[in-house]
Write a structure and sequence with these properties.
4 helices; single chain; about 230 residues; 7-stranded mixed β-barrel; alpha+beta
């Protein structure tokens, strides 16, 4: 009886383990810095171009939203809420995805209703909480937030980088990462390192003209509420 009970418990444990969802972690593949921002326009979409020191990243998805926000808000009105370095996840040897989080720097409680609706139309459909003091009313701690999903492809480094116009005063650091599954890996740390270091980026050749623009995504919000301008 005891043997049967032990077998039943063991089988139940194995079944439970086999149905657990896989767990993932992100391991860095390489570091880069965005030194300029540009755009490319096709008949069907507007692409945003991030010129890096090592590679060029062109997003097919999300570029129009980013430029719409940049064109209709002033730099001092928005902050980049991503933790630095910004993560760009590799989906293949040529594809990446990322998410930009831009905060509008005026609390919702102080915005006229019409202006808030206009911000929502631009893409500020979420909110984020930031209180500078316990004395600040809670309605003045909620800020509009735009969470913009980007996806695109990795291209070769821009030639003659010194000649790129409108370079950022302070580059945005980015980290190219690879999603690695932890499930059913014995020595996970070793295997994850092997996976990350074994990733090969195969950049594509840039076809078309990149138009660089004198813009910044927004100031980076540092600890203590200080802003760092790029």
């Amino acid at each position: 009886m005891a043997q049967k009970l032990f077998t039943l418990v063991a089988l139940t444990s194995l079944t439970a383990c086999s149905t657990l969802p896989p767990q993932y972690t992100y391991h860095p593949v390489l570091q880069d810095k965005i030194i300029a921002i540009g755009k490319m326009t096709t008949p069907t979409q507007q692409q945003i171009v991030f010129a890096g020191e090592r590679y060029t990243y062109i997003a097919d998805q999300g570029g129009a939203t980013v430029f719409n926000i940049i064109q209709h808000t002033r730099p001092e009105q928005r902050s980049l809420m991503n933790q630095l370095p910004i993560q760009f996840e590799m989906l293949s040897d040529t594809q990446f995805k990322s998410t930009l989080r831009l905060r509008y720097n005026q609390p919702i409680g102080l915005l006229p209703a019409r202006e808030y609706q206009q911000l929502k139309a631009l893409g500020f459909t979420q909110t984020t909480t930031h209180c500078t003091s316990a004395l600040v009313p809670i309605e003045n701690c909620e800020y509009p937030l735009a969470s913009i999903d980007l996806s695109g492809q990795i291209y070769q480094q821009v030639a003659n980088q010194q000649a790129i116009p409108y370079q950022l005063k302070q580059p945005y650091p980015i980290s190219i990462v690879k999603k690695v599954e932890q499930h059913r890996q014995g020595n996970f740390k070793k295997k994850a390192k092997e996976v990350a270091t074994g990733v090969a980026i195969v950049p594509l050749a840039i076809v078309g003209t990149v138009i660089y623009v004198p813009v910044v995504l927004g100031a980076t919000l540092l600890s203590g509420g200080k802003l760092e301008w790029h």
